[in-house]
Amino acid sequence: MAKPTRDAEATKASIIQNAMMLFAKNGYEATTAEEIAKECNVNKAMIFYYYKNKAGLYSAVMSHALDAIHEEVIESEKCCVSPLADLEAFIKTYAKYCDEHPYLPALILRELSDSGAHLPEMMFESLRKLFTLLSSILKEGESQGIFHNVIPMIIHFMIVGTINLLVTTKPLRANAVALNADLDTCSDCDIDEISDYIFTKIKLMLEVKNEKNPTCA
Amino acid sequence: MAKPTRDAEATKASIIQNAMMLFAKNGYEATTAEEIAKECNVNKAMIFYYYKNKAGLYSAVMSHALDAIHEEVIESEKCCVSPLADLEAFIKTYAKYCDEHPYLPALILRELSDSGAHLPEMMFESLRKLFTLLSSILKEGESQGIFHNVIPMIIHFMIVGTINLLVTTKPLRANAVALNADLDTCSDCDIDEISDYIFTKIKLMLEVKNEKNPTCA
DNA sequence: TCCTATTAACTAACTGGTTAATTATAACTG
DNA sequence: CAGTTATAATTAACCAGTTAGTTAATAGGA
Protein backbone atom coordinates (compact mmCIF):
# COMPACT_ATOMS: atom_id res chain seq x y z
CA MET A 1 0.00 0.00 0.00
CA ALA A 2 1.18 3.49 -0.76
CA LYS A 3 1.93 5.65 2.22
CA PRO A 4 -1.04 7.83 3.07
CA THR A 5 -0.82 11.55 2.51
CA ARG A 6 -1.54 12.10 6.19
CA ASP A 7 -0.40 9.73 8.89
CA ALA A 8 -0.38 11.06 12.40
CA GLU A 9 1.76 8.29 13.86
CA ALA A 10 4.36 8.57 11.15
CA THR A 11 4.50 12.34 11.54
CA LYS A 12 4.88 12.11 15.31
CA ALA A 13 7.58 9.47 15.01
CA SER A 14 9.43 11.47 12.40
CA ILE A 15 9.41 14.53 14.64
CA ILE A 16 10.77 12.52 17.57
CA GLN A 17 13.52 10.94 15.50
CA ASN A 18 14.74 14.13 13.88
CA ALA A 19 14.41 16.12 17.07
CA MET A 20 16.47 13.50 18.89
CA MET A 21 19.21 13.76 16.31
CA LEU A 22 19.25 17.56 16.33
CA PHE A 23 19.02 17.94 20.11
CA ALA A 24 21.92 15.54 20.45
CA LYS A 25 23.99 17.24 17.80
CA ASN A 26 23.40 20.87 18.72
CA GLY A 27 21.84 20.94 22.14
CA TYR A 28 18.45 22.06 23.33
CA GLU A 29 18.71 25.82 22.91
CA ALA A 30 20.59 25.74 19.64
CA THR A 31 17.97 23.54 18.03
CA THR A 32 15.03 25.44 16.61
CA ALA A 33 11.54 24.19 15.97
CA GLU A 34 11.78 25.31 12.39
CA GLU A 35 14.97 23.35 11.91
CA ILE A 36 13.33 20.18 13.20
CA ALA A 37 10.28 20.74 11.04
CA LYS A 38 12.39 21.25 7.95
CA GLU A 39 14.41 18.13 8.67
CA CYS A 40 11.32 15.94 8.61
CA ASN A 41 9.40 17.85 5.93
CA VAL A 42 6.62 18.77 8.29
CA ASN A 43 5.05 22.09 9.09
CA LYS A 44 6.48 23.72 12.17
CA ALA A 45 3.05 24.04 13.73
CA MET A 46 2.81 20.24 13.87
CA ILE A 47 5.45 20.20 16.55
CA PHE A 48 3.32 22.37 18.78
CA TYR A 49 0.20 20.55 17.74
CA TYR A 50 1.56 17.21 18.91
CA TYR A 51 3.94 18.18 21.70
CA LYS A 52 2.49 21.44 23.00
CA ASN A 53 5.83 23.24 23.20
CA LYS A 54 9.55 22.77 22.77
CA ALA A 55 10.01 21.49 26.30
CA GLY A 56 7.26 18.95 25.75
CA LEU A 57 8.98 17.67 22.64
CA TYR A 58 12.28 17.46 24.47
CA SER A 59 10.68 15.50 27.25
CA ALA A 60 9.11 13.10 24.76
CA VAL A 61 12.43 12.62 23.00
CA MET A 62 14.28 11.85 26.20
CA SER A 63 11.73 9.39 27.54
CA HIS A 64 11.65 7.63 24.23
CA ALA A 65 15.42 7.23 24.10
CA LEU A 66 15.92 6.27 27.73
CA ASP A 67 13.09 3.77 27.80
CA ALA A 68 14.46 2.15 24.70
CA ILE A 69 17.90 1.61 26.19
CA HIS A 70 16.53 0.49 29.52
CA GLU A 71 14.39 -2.13 27.84
CA GLU A 72 17.33 -3.35 25.78
CA VAL A 73 19.51 -3.75 28.86
CA ILE A 74 16.75 -5.46 30.85
CA GLU A 75 16.15 -7.82 27.95
CA SER A 76 19.77 -8.93 27.61
CA GLU A 77 20.18 -9.34 31.30
CA LYS A 78 17.15 -11.35 32.28
CA CYS A 79 19.32 -14.45 32.28
CA CYS A 80 20.51 -13.76 35.88
CA VAL A 81 23.17 -16.47 35.66
CA SER A 82 25.56 -14.63 37.97
CA PRO A 83 26.37 -11.08 39.00
CA LEU A 84 29.47 -11.21 36.86
CA ALA A 85 27.55 -12.31 33.78
CA ASP A 86 24.93 -9.68 34.50
CA LEU A 87 27.59 -7.02 34.81
CA GLU A 88 29.07 -8.06 31.52
CA ALA A 89 25.67 -7.98 29.87
CA PHE A 90 24.96 -4.55 31.31
CA ILE A 91 28.21 -3.06 30.09
CA LYS A 92 28.17 -4.62 26.66
CA THR A 93 24.52 -4.00 25.93
CA TYR A 94 24.75 -0.40 27.07
CA ALA A 95 27.88 0.15 25.00
CA LYS A 96 26.43 -1.47 21.92
CA TYR A 97 23.22 0.49 22.15
CA CYS A 98 25.12 3.76 22.56
CA ASP A 99 27.27 2.96 19.60
CA GLU A 100 24.25 2.24 17.45
CA HIS A 101 22.35 5.30 18.68
CA PRO A 102 25.10 7.83 19.29
CA TYR A 103 22.66 10.66 19.99
CA LEU A 104 21.67 8.98 23.23
CA PRO A 105 24.96 9.42 25.11
CA ALA A 106 25.22 12.99 23.88
CA LEU A 107 21.76 13.73 25.21
CA ILE A 108 22.49 12.08 28.56
CA LEU A 109 25.83 13.82 28.99
CA ARG A 110 24.38 17.20 28.22
CA GLU A 111 21.47 16.69 30.55
CA LEU A 112 23.73 15.52 33.35
CA SER A 113 26.08 18.43 32.85
CA ASP A 114 23.09 20.71 33.37
CA SER A 115 22.49 18.76 36.53
CA GLY A 116 19.00 18.23 35.24
CA ALA A 117 18.21 21.89 34.75
CA HIS A 118 15.30 21.21 32.44
CA LEU A 119 15.15 17.53 33.24
CA PRO A 120 11.51 16.49 33.34
CA GLU A 121 10.39 14.22 36.13
CA MET A 122 9.67 11.43 33.69
CA MET A 123 13.15 11.43 32.29
CA PHE A 124 14.66 11.48 35.73
CA GLU A 125 12.74 8.29 36.42
CA SER A 126 14.19 6.59 33.38
CA LEU A 127 17.73 7.54 34.34
CA ARG A 128 17.14 6.28 37.84
CA LYS A 129 15.88 2.92 36.62
CA LEU A 130 19.12 2.31 34.79
CA PHE A 131 21.13 3.08 37.88
CA THR A 132 18.92 0.90 40.06
CA LEU A 133 19.50 -1.98 37.67
CA LEU A 134 23.28 -1.81 37.89
CA SER A 135 23.11 -1.12 41.58
CA SER A 136 21.24 -4.35 42.26
CA ILE A 137 23.73 -6.34 40.20
CA LEU A 138 26.62 -4.90 42.16
CA LYS A 139 24.97 -5.42 45.53
CA GLU A 140 24.10 -9.01 44.68
CA GLY A 141 27.72 -9.59 43.72
CA GLU A 142 28.87 -8.10 46.97
CA SER A 143 26.54 -10.24 49.05
CA GLN A 144 27.79 -13.32 47.21
CA GLY A 145 31.33 -12.36 48.11
CA ILE A 146 32.37 -11.88 44.49
CA PHE A 147 32.67 -8.10 44.54
CA HIS A 148 34.29 -6.04 47.26
CA ASN A 149 34.10 -2.48 48.48
CA VAL A 150 31.42 -1.37 46.05
CA ILE A 151 30.07 2.16 45.84
CA PRO A 152 27.41 1.71 43.17
CA MET A 153 27.01 5.36 42.24
CA ILE A 154 30.70 5.78 41.50
CA ILE A 155 30.95 2.50 39.62
CA HIS A 156 27.87 3.43 37.65
CA PHE A 157 29.35 6.72 36.50
CA MET A 158 32.62 4.96 35.81
CA ILE A 159 30.94 2.57 33.41
CA VAL A 160 28.28 4.75 31.88
CA GLY A 161 30.41 7.90 31.85
CA THR A 162 33.34 6.22 30.16
CA ILE A 163 31.17 4.67 27.48
CA ASN A 164 29.24 7.87 26.87
CA LEU A 165 32.41 9.89 26.53
CA LEU A 166 34.11 7.41 24.25
CA VAL A 167 31.09 7.26 21.97
CA THR A 168 30.45 11.00 21.80
CA THR A 169 34.10 11.89 21.28
CA LYS A 170 34.61 9.38 18.52
CA PRO A 171 34.79 11.99 15.72
CA LEU A 172 36.78 14.32 17.94
CA ARG A 173 39.33 11.64 18.67
CA ALA A 174 39.66 10.73 15.03
CA ASN A 175 40.26 14.37 14.26
CA ALA A 176 42.87 14.68 17.01
CA VAL A 177 44.87 11.87 15.49
CA ALA A 178 44.76 13.53 12.11
CA LEU A 179 46.22 16.68 13.63
CA ASN A 180 48.79 14.93 15.78
CA ALA A 181 49.83 11.47 14.67
CA ASP A 182 51.79 10.46 17.76
CA LEU A 183 48.77 10.90 19.97
CA ASP A 184 47.01 7.64 20.72
CA THR A 185 43.36 8.51 21.12
CA CYS A 186 42.14 4.98 20.62
CA SER A 187 40.48 6.18 17.46
CA ASP A 188 40.61 2.74 15.86
CA CYS A 189 39.09 0.97 18.84
CA ASP A 190 35.70 -0.41 17.97
CA ILE A 191 32.92 -0.64 20.47
CA ASP A 192 33.47 -4.34 21.18
CA GLU A 193 37.10 -3.83 22.11
CA ILE A 194 36.12 -0.87 24.26
CA SER A 195 33.33 -2.58 26.15
CA ASP A 196 35.45 -5.68 26.54
CA TYR A 197 38.28 -3.64 28.00
CA ILE A 198 35.98 -1.77 30.33
CA PHE A 199 34.38 -4.96 31.55
CA THR A 200 37.75 -6.63 32.13
CA LYS A 201 39.04 -3.66 34.08
CA ILE A 202 35.91 -3.12 36.12
CA LYS A 203 35.89 -6.82 36.93
CA LEU A 204 39.46 -6.64 38.20
CA MET A 205 38.65 -3.57 40.20
CA LEU A 206 35.71 -5.20 41.91
CA GLU A 207 37.03 -8.71 42.40
CA VAL A 208 40.32 -8.02 44.15
CA LYS A 209 39.76 -7.97 47.86
CA ASN A 210 42.41 -6.03 49.70
CA GLU A 211 42.78 -2.61 48.20
CA LYS A 212 46.12 -1.66 49.71
CA ASN A 213 48.13 -4.88 49.22
CA PRO A 214 46.38 -7.51 47.16
CA THR A 215 47.42 -10.88 48.56
CA CYS A 216 46.49 -14.28 47.28
CA ALA A 217 45.44 -16.74 49.95
CA MET B 1 44.75 52.47 46.82
CA ALA B 2 41.18 52.92 45.77
CA LYS B 3 40.11 50.91 42.78
CA PRO B 4 40.20 53.08 39.69
CA THR B 5 36.98 54.03 37.98
CA ARG B 6 38.26 52.40 34.86
CA ASP B 7 40.41 49.31 34.92
CA ALA B 8 40.58 47.33 31.74
CA GLU B 9 42.17 44.26 33.29
CA ALA B 10 39.63 44.09 36.08
CA THR B 11 36.77 44.48 33.62
CA LYS B 12 38.12 41.77 31.36
CA ALA B 13 38.68 39.42 34.30
CA SER B 14 35.23 40.09 35.68
CA ILE B 15 33.66 39.29 32.33
CA ILE B 16 35.59 36.02 32.11
CA GLN B 17 34.67 34.96 35.62
CA ASN B 18 30.97 35.68 35.33
CA ALA B 19 30.74 34.30 31.84
CA MET B 20 32.40 31.10 33.02
CA MET B 21 29.84 30.73 35.76
CA LEU B 22 26.89 31.41 33.51
CA PHE B 23 28.09 29.28 30.60
CA ALA B 24 28.60 26.40 33.00
CA LYS B 25 25.25 26.85 34.67
CA ASN B 26 23.07 27.43 31.63
CA GLY B 27 25.08 26.41 28.60
CA TYR B 28 26.39 28.43 25.72
CA GLU B 29 23.21 29.25 23.84
CA ALA B 30 21.09 29.89 26.90
CA THR B 31 23.53 32.44 28.25
CA THR B 32 23.02 35.93 26.87
CA ALA B 33 25.52 38.73 26.59
CA GLU B 34 23.21 41.03 28.49
CA GLU B 35 22.96 38.54 31.34
CA ILE B 36 26.72 38.35 31.62
CA ALA B 37 27.06 42.12 31.48
CA LYS B 38 24.47 42.61 34.18
CA GLU B 39 26.12 40.03 36.40
CA CYS B 40 29.38 41.97 36.44
CA ASN B 41 27.93 45.48 36.29
CA VAL B 42 29.47 46.21 32.96
CA ASN B 43 27.96 47.50 29.80
CA LYS B 44 27.08 44.78 27.34
CA ALA B 45 29.13 46.44 24.62
CA MET B 46 32.28 45.82 26.67
CA ILE B 47 31.96 42.13 25.97
CA PHE B 48 32.16 42.75 22.24
CA TYR B 49 34.80 45.41 22.74
CA TYR B 50 37.15 43.01 24.50
CA TYR B 51 36.19 39.63 23.05
CA LYS B 52 34.87 40.54 19.61
CA ASN B 53 31.86 38.23 19.78
CA LYS B 54 30.18 35.62 21.90
CA ALA B 55 32.23 32.79 20.48
CA GLY B 56 35.40 34.73 21.23
CA LEU B 57 34.35 35.15 24.82
CA TYR B 58 33.52 31.48 25.10
CA SER B 59 36.88 30.53 23.71
CA ALA B 60 38.62 32.83 26.18
CA VAL B 61 36.64 31.36 29.06
CA MET B 62 37.50 27.80 28.12
CA SER B 63 41.20 28.41 27.63
CA HIS B 64 41.36 30.25 30.91
CA ALA B 65 39.68 27.42 32.80
CA LEU B 66 41.58 24.60 31.16
CA ASP B 67 44.95 26.27 31.47
CA ALA B 68 44.28 26.87 35.13
CA ILE B 69 43.53 23.24 35.86
CA HIS B 70 46.40 22.01 33.75
CA GLU B 71 48.82 24.23 35.64
CA GLU B 72 47.45 23.06 38.95
CA VAL B 73 47.89 19.41 38.02
CA ILE B 74 51.38 19.99 36.64
CA GLU B 75 52.33 21.84 39.80
CA SER B 76 51.24 19.09 42.20
CA GLU B 77 52.82 16.41 40.13
CA LYS B 78 56.27 17.77 39.50
CA CYS B 79 57.57 15.54 42.28
CA CYS B 80 57.86 12.53 39.86
CA VAL B 81 58.49 10.13 42.72
CA SER B 82 56.79 7.22 40.98
CA PRO B 83 54.07 6.63 38.41
CA LEU B 84 51.76 5.53 41.18
CA ALA B 85 52.32 8.71 43.17
CA ASP B 86 51.91 10.74 40.01
CA LEU B 87 48.68 8.99 39.22
CA GLU B 88 47.41 9.69 42.70
CA ALA B 89 48.40 13.34 42.41
CA PHE B 90 46.72 13.60 39.03
CA ILE B 91 43.43 12.15 40.23
CA LYS B 92 43.29 14.03 43.51
CA THR B 93 44.36 17.37 42.14
CA TYR B 94 41.95 17.13 39.26
CA ALA B 95 39.12 16.12 41.57
CA LYS B 96 39.85 18.84 44.07
CA TYR B 97 40.07 21.51 41.43
CA CYS B 98 36.79 20.40 39.90
CA ASP B 99 35.13 20.44 43.26
CA GLU B 100 36.34 23.95 43.93
CA HIS B 101 35.45 25.19 40.46
CA PRO B 102 32.38 23.16 39.60
CA TYR B 103 31.72 25.13 36.42
CA LEU B 104 34.77 23.54 34.83
CA PRO B 105 33.52 19.94 34.62
CA ALA B 106 30.15 21.15 33.38
CA LEU B 107 31.85 23.09 30.61
CA ILE B 108 34.07 20.19 29.66
CA LEU B 109 31.25 17.69 29.61
CA ARG B 110 29.08 19.91 27.50
CA GLU B 111 31.88 20.57 25.08
CA LEU B 112 32.76 16.90 24.78
CA SER B 113 29.15 15.94 24.25
CA ASP B 114 29.17 18.27 21.26
CA SER B 115 32.20 16.38 20.13
CA GLY B 116 33.85 19.72 19.87
CA ALA B 117 31.33 21.18 17.47
CA HIS B 118 32.29 24.73 18.26
CA LEU B 119 35.43 23.74 20.09
CA PRO B 120 38.06 26.32 19.27
CA GLU B 121 41.51 25.12 18.34
CA MET B 122 43.01 26.71 21.40
CA MET B 123 40.74 24.89 23.78
CA PHE B 124 41.31 21.62 22.03
CA GLU B 125 45.02 22.13 22.72
CA SER B 126 44.37 22.56 26.41
CA LEU B 127 42.28 19.43 26.61
CA ARG B 128 44.95 17.51 24.78
CA LYS B 129 47.66 18.64 27.16
CA LEU B 130 45.78 17.17 30.07
CA PHE B 131 45.41 13.85 28.31
CA THR B 132 49.06 13.83 27.31
CA LEU B 133 50.02 14.33 30.93
CA LEU B 134 48.06 11.33 32.19
CA SER B 135 49.13 9.31 29.21
CA SER B 136 52.80 9.76 30.00
CA ILE B 137 52.26 8.75 33.61
CA LEU B 138 50.49 5.58 32.56
CA LYS B 139 53.06 4.68 29.93
CA GLU B 140 55.91 5.24 32.36
CA GLY B 141 54.14 2.96 34.82
CA GLU B 142 53.74 0.33 32.18
CA SER B 143 57.38 0.45 31.15
CA GLN B 144 58.37 0.09 34.80
CA GLY B 145 56.21 -3.01 35.02
CA ILE B 146 53.88 -1.49 37.59
CA PHE B 147 50.86 -1.08 35.34
CA HIS B 148 49.55 -3.63 32.89
CA ASN B 149 47.41 -3.62 29.81
CA VAL B 150 46.94 0.13 29.68
CA ILE B 151 44.82 1.94 27.11
CA PRO B 152 45.45 5.54 28.11
CA MET B 153 42.47 7.08 26.33
CA ILE B 154 39.99 4.78 28.06
CA ILE B 155 41.62 5.16 31.46
CA HIS B 156 41.66 8.91 30.98
CA PHE B 157 37.94 9.06 30.32
CA MET B 158 37.38 6.67 33.19
CA ILE B 159 39.08 9.02 35.61
CA VAL B 160 38.14 12.39 34.23
CA GLY B 161 34.65 11.34 33.17
CA THR B 162 33.79 9.84 36.52
CA ILE B 163 35.00 12.87 38.43
CA ASN B 164 33.28 15.30 36.08
CA LEU B 165 29.99 13.45 36.33
CA LEU B 166 30.12 13.11 40.09
CA VAL B 167 30.86 16.80 40.52
CA THR B 168 28.25 18.07 38.08
CA THR B 169 25.52 15.75 39.32
CA LYS B 170 26.06 16.62 42.96
CA PRO B 171 22.86 18.69 43.29
CA LEU B 172 20.95 16.21 41.16
CA ARG B 173 22.02 13.31 43.35
CA ALA B 174 21.08 15.15 46.50
CA ASN B 175 17.69 15.82 44.99
CA ALA B 176 17.24 12.18 44.01
CA VAL B 177 17.77 11.08 47.57
CA ALA B 178 15.21 13.57 48.80
CA LEU B 179 12.67 12.05 46.41
CA ASN B 180 13.58 8.44 47.06
CA ALA B 181 15.27 7.73 50.38
CA ASP B 182 16.29 4.12 49.72
CA LEU B 183 18.35 5.17 46.71
CA ASP B 184 22.03 5.46 47.51
CA THR B 185 23.36 8.17 45.23
CA CYS B 186 26.48 8.78 47.26
CA SER B 187 25.14 12.22 48.01
CA ASP B 188 27.08 12.48 51.26
CA CYS B 189 30.38 11.49 49.74
CA ASP B 190 32.80 14.38 49.82
CA ILE B 191 35.37 14.91 47.14
CA ASP B 192 38.21 13.38 49.16
CA GLU B 193 36.36 10.12 49.66
CA ILE B 194 35.46 10.08 46.01
CA SER B 195 38.93 10.75 44.67
CA ASP B 196 40.41 8.31 47.15
CA TYR B 197 37.99 5.62 46.05
CA ILE B 198 38.64 6.28 42.39
CA PHE B 199 42.40 6.19 42.90
CA THR B 200 42.20 2.95 44.87
CA LYS B 201 40.06 1.28 42.24
CA ILE B 202 42.05 2.52 39.27
CA LYS B 203 45.22 1.38 41.00
CA LEU B 204 43.78 -2.12 41.45
CA MET B 205 42.63 -2.18 37.89
CA LEU B 206 46.05 -1.26 36.55
CA GLU B 207 48.27 -3.21 38.91
CA VAL B 208 46.81 -6.67 38.63
CA LYS B 209 48.55 -8.49 35.86
CA ASN B 210 46.50 -11.31 34.49
CA GLU B 211 43.05 -10.11 33.60
CA LYS B 212 41.37 -13.47 33.46
CA ASN B 213 42.80 -15.17 36.57
CA PRO B 214 44.84 -12.91 38.79
CA THR B 215 47.69 -14.96 40.24
CA CYS B 216 50.35 -13.90 42.72
CA ALA B 217 54.04 -14.60 42.17
C1' DT C 1 45.34 66.79 23.70
C1' DC C 2 44.88 62.09 22.50
C1' DC C 3 43.86 57.57 23.34
C1' DT C 4 41.40 54.11 25.91
C1' DA C 5 37.43 52.67 28.36
C1' DT C 6 32.58 53.05 28.70
C1' DT C 7 27.83 53.94 27.68
C1' DA C 8 22.98 54.26 25.83
C1' DA C 9 20.34 53.68 22.13
C1' DC C 10 19.51 51.19 18.15
C1' DT C 11 18.74 47.45 14.59
C1' DA C 12 18.26 43.46 11.89
C1' DA C 13 17.52 38.84 12.36
C1' DC C 14 15.56 35.14 14.64
C1' DT C 15 12.56 32.25 17.72
C1' DG C 16 8.83 30.07 20.13
C1' DG C 17 4.32 30.02 19.82
C1' DT C 18 -0.59 31.27 17.88
C1' DT C 19 -4.36 31.28 14.83
C1' DA C 20 -7.58 31.04 11.37
C1' DA C 21 -8.26 28.81 7.38
C1' DT C 22 -7.83 24.41 4.61
C1' DT C 23 -7.67 19.63 3.44
C1' DA C 24 -8.03 14.61 3.92
C1' DT C 25 -10.34 10.97 5.95
C1' DA C 26 -13.42 8.28 8.46
C1' DA C 27 -18.14 7.88 10.01
C1' DC C 28 -22.82 8.48 9.39
C1' DT C 29 -27.23 8.74 6.85
C1' DG C 30 -30.79 8.18 3.87
C1' DC D 1 -23.50 3.84 -2.35
C1' DA D 2 -23.62 9.07 -3.06
C1' DG D 3 -23.62 12.76 -0.25
C1' DT D 4 -23.19 14.99 4.10
C1' DT D 5 -20.90 15.92 8.21
C1' DA D 6 -17.68 15.89 11.89
C1' DT D 7 -13.22 15.79 13.07
C1' DA D 8 -8.33 15.04 12.89
C1' DA D 9 -4.23 16.55 10.33
C1' DT D 10 -1.92 20.21 8.05
C1' DT D 11 -0.66 24.72 6.46
C1' DA D 12 0.75 29.71 5.74
C1' DA D 13 0.94 33.89 7.72
C1' DC D 14 1.67 36.28 11.57
C1' DC D 15 3.20 38.23 16.27
C1' DA D 16 5.58 39.60 20.26
C1' DG D 17 9.69 39.08 22.60
C1' DT D 18 14.57 38.34 22.51
C1' DT D 19 19.38 38.44 21.00
C1' DA D 20 23.94 39.26 19.04
C1' DG D 21 26.15 42.78 17.39
C1' DT D 22 26.78 48.05 15.96
C1' DT D 23 27.53 52.81 16.41
C1' DA D 24 28.12 57.31 17.60
C1' DA D 25 28.82 59.93 21.35
C1' DT D 26 31.15 60.65 25.93
C1' DA D 27 34.17 60.58 29.99
C1' DG D 28 38.70 59.70 32.24
C1' DG D 29 43.43 59.78 32.52
C1' DA D 30 48.45 60.29 30.92
Give an overview of the whole structure.
- The structure is a homodimer of 217-residue chains.
- Chain A has 217 residues and is mostly helical.
- Chain A has two domains: 7-51, Arc Repressor Mutant, subunit A (Orthogonal Bundle); 60-207, Orthogonal Bundle (Tetracycline Repressor, domain 2).
- Chain A has ten helices and no strands.
- The first copy, chain A, has helices at residues 8-26, 33-39, 44-51, 54-77, 83-100, 103-113, 121-143, 152-168, 170-179, 191-207.
- In chain A, helix 1 (8-26) crosses helix 4 (54-77), helix 4 (54-77) crosses helix 5 (83-100) and helix 4 runs parallel beside helix 7.
- The longest helix of chain A is centred in the first third of the chain and has 24 residues, at 54-77.
- The termini of chain A are far apart.
- Mean pLDDT of chain A is 88; it is low at 211-217.
- The interface between A and B is large, with 63 and 64 residues.
- Chain B binds a DNA duplex (30 and 30 nucleotides) through helix 3.
